[in-house]
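=== RUN LOG ===
request id: a7f3
mode: sequence -> structure
chains: 1
length: 92
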Amino acid sequence: MGKYLSDYFSINRRYLRSINLERDLADVTALDGYILTDKSIEALRRILNGFSSDQLAVAWTLTGVYGTGKSSFAHFLTCLFASEKDPYIAKL
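=== RESULT ===
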């Protein structure tokens, strides 16, 4: 019997499906393997600077092409800033 491609390669679970904020909000394991890229670090820096300035930004826009990690970054931020008492949001 022939070999399958899966006999030679394994893919980390993190890359098998995309983040769905409605489905994954309470699941911190959905962020397993998440890596902050240079762009996401810069976005996080801008958001944190917005919190610490006198002119508090009340909204941010995150744009990018399909599959670039916008939902993963949003999930990361939600977990990062969630109240420890919130039963619906996973904690990092």
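=== NOTES ===
The chain has a mean pLDDT of 82.
The first helix runs from residue 21 to 24.
=== END ===
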